[in-house]
Design goal:
Order of helices and strands: EHEHEHEHEHHHEHHEH
Structural class: alpha/beta
Shape: globular
Bound molecules: nicotinamide-adenine-dinucleotide
Strand order of the largest sheet: 3-2-1-4-5-6-7
Helix content: 40-55%
Strand content: 15-25%
Distance between the termini: 58 Å
Length: 282
C-alpha cells in the first residue's frame, strides 16, 4: 500500500529519536516525510516502528551527533529526501548520566555543530528547534563569557575557559553552561546563518519532563527534584506531549515572527528560584 501519493513531501529531520523528540515529530508529522537519527539502533527501531504503525513515512539513519562527518551525512540524507523544512535536535544527555566532558561535547559543542550543518540544508521558510533545558536559566554568566559562547567558531568552543576542567567542576555545572550556550547559539544562528537563508530557529527549555532520561535523574537525585516539584507553582512534572504542543507552535507558520528565542516550559521552577521559594542545591 502507498499511504501518501503526494510528491515533494516536506522533510522533518529529528536528531535524537528519544522521548521528547518522537513526541514532537508525532505532533507535526501529518503529510511530511520523517528522517529519524540517533546513535542508538534500538531507539531508532522503536521510534520508527511506532510512527510507521500510525502510517507516517519514516526513514532512519544511525548518527553520532558528536561526529561532524556523521551529522553531515545525516543532513545530506535529509536533503536527498526533499525540502528540509524542520530540524529538531534533542540529542543530549543529563547531569547524572554523563561526565562534565561528555556533557560539554554533546549538549554544547555537538548542538552548535548541528545548527551549523543544518544551516546549509534548511529550506527557506523552514524552522529549527533545539531542546535546551531549564538549567540554562539557572546560572548567570558574565556578558563577556556569553559573547564568547555566542560567537566563538564551533570547533573552538571546547577551548573556552568557561568549559574547561577547572571551570566546570561538576556535571551539573557543565549542563547549566551547555544549555545556556544553546540559547546563545540559537540566537546567533537566527540572526546569521539561518536568518540569511530565510529560516527560523528557536529553542525550548523544558523543566522536569518524565522520560527515561528524567528517571535516571530521579534515581540519582530524587530528593532535590522532589523539592523542586514541591516549590514550583505547577506542583507537578511535565510530559513530552506538553513540550510537543509548544514545539508544534514554534515550528508552525503561526510562529513566523518568532526566531532566535527560547521558550522556558518548566512549571515555574525558575520563577520559584527567582522568588526565593526554592534554592538550588538547598
Ligand atoms: N527529560 C527531562 O526532564 C529534560 C529536561 C530538560 C532538558 N532535557 C533535554 O531534552 C533532550 C531530550 O531528552 P529526553 O528526555 O527526550 O531524553 P532521551 O534520552 O529520551 O532522548 C535523547 C536521545 O539522544 C540520543 N543521543 C544521545 N547521544 C547521542 C549521540 N551522540 N548522537 C545521536 N543521538 C544521541 C539518545 O540515544 C536518545 O535517544 C536532551 O537534550 C535533554 O538534556 C530533558
Amino acid at each position: 500500500m502507498i499511504f501518501n501519493r503526494n510528491d515533494n513531501l516536506p522533510v522533518i529531520a529529528l536528531l535524537g529519536a528519544g522521548s521528547m523528540g518522537t513526541a514532537i515529530v508525532r505532533r507535526i508529522a501529518n503529510g511530511k516525510r520523517i528522517l529519524l537519527g540517533d546513535i542508538s539502533e534500538a531507539s531508532l527501531e522503536s521510534a520508527a516502528r511506532d510512527l510507521t504503525a500510525s502510517g507516517y513515512a519514516v526513514e532512519t539513519q544511525q548518527v553520532d551527533a558528536l561526529d561532524r562527518a556523521s551529522v553531515t551525512a545525516f543532513a545530506a540524507r535529509a536533503a536527498s529526501l526533499g525540502e528540509v523544512r524542520y530540524l529538531i535536535d534533542t540529542a543530549g544527555t543529563s547531569p547524572n548520566q554523563s561526565s562534565p566532558e561528555h556533557i560539554v561535547a554533546l549538549d554544547l559543542v555537538a548542538t552548535a555543530m548541528a545548527i551549523d550543518i543544518f544551516a546549509e540544508v534548511i529550506a527557506p521558510g523552514g524552522a529549527g528547534l533545539i531542546i535546551s533545558s531549564q538549567a540554562g536559566h539557572m546560572m548567570r554568566l558574565s556578558d563577556e563569557v556569553e559573547q564568547q559562547l555566542a560567537l566563538t567558531p564551533t570547533d573552538e568552543l571546547a577551548d573556552l575557559d568557561v568549559v574547561k576542567h577547572d571551570a566546570v567542576t561538576s556535571s551539573g555545572m557543565a549542563y547549566m553552561v551547555s544549555k545556556r550556550a544553546n540559547h546563545l547559539r540559537v540566537r546567533t544562528a537566527a540572526a546569521t546563518t539561518w536568518g540569511d537563508r530565510g529560516a527560523r530557529i528557536n529553542s525550548i527549555s523544558p523543566g522536569i519532563v518524565v522520560t527515561p532520561l528524567a528517571y535516571d535523574e530521579f534515581r540519582a537525585a530524587g530528593e532535590g527534584y522532589q523539592a523542586m516539584i514541591d516549590a514550583s507553582p505547577a506542583r507537578r512534572v511535565g510530559s513530552s506531549d506538553e513540550i510537543a504542543a509548544a514545539a508544534a507552535f514554534l515550528l508552525s507558520d503561526e510562529a513566523s515572527f518568532i526566531t532566535g528565542t527560547d521558550l522556558l516550559i518548566d512549571g515555574g521552577v525558575i520563577a520559584a528560584i527567582g522568588a526565593g521559594r526554592y534554592t538550588l542545591g538547598g
